[in-house]
Here is the input.
Amino acid sequence: MIYNEMCMSLLSVCIRTHNQERFIGEALDSVLGQKTLFPFEVIVSDDASSDGTIAILKEYQANNPDKIRLLLSDTNLGGPRNLKRVIEASNAQYITCLDGDDFYTDEYKLQKQVDFLENHLEYVACFHNTWFVDAAGNKLGLFNKPNFHSIHDAHEFI
Here is the structure.
């Protein structure tokens, strides 16, 4: 495993959230239920939620103090600035992003993606198909890009 000793975790799961009390528990459960052979942390950046999201986040952090780190705001930053803040809070070698109303359906997702990146150093990123699901849990469609296999230099995305 190519692991930078300066990093506290090999991977950071960066979650941004705002007023997602209905979904944030399922998102966190799906992350905490991941089966990995490497350490990872969960960084949650809440964008001044006014519902019960913050109370839920604090409860999860209290139950997982070595795993979950919270970034809380008194004022709303907006989605892009909230995403930037949570990514910049990571010092891990790898970062994956998850919104507070999304969740993982494969308990080996993180392990599979890290294994891929560790074994294919010519890649700087990877992704997977995503189901769009409504609030009732109905699958609305699959987002996938089967022909998106090109290699790009990381500087193209900065």
